[in-house]
Predict the structure.
Amino acid sequence: MNSEELKALVIDALDDLKGVDIKVLDVRDKTSMTDILVIAGGSSSRQVNALAQHVVEKAKEAGCRPMGVEGSEQGSGWVLVDLGDVVVHVMLPETRDFYNLEKLWGDDAPEDDSLS
């Protein structure tokens, strides 16, 4: 499954469970670690965990095993699902505002060769 197909699968999975403010960032020119970041919000820790778990389930059904899942058991308000070419961040609004990944990795972020 290529990164574009995986991105579509992730967005559909997040939409299924009413993920909010879904943003997609193409970071191929900023890092060699991944191609795409998908950032989504949930209204509670329970929804954040459910969204991330749904992404994991849909990816597995499509034959893509996650490389890792971080934060789901901690109740931290941020769960990361690493699918290789696509990394998914599901966050509570206050966590998302604090870390502001869209600004860090978005088009207005400075190019930095040390990130590669």
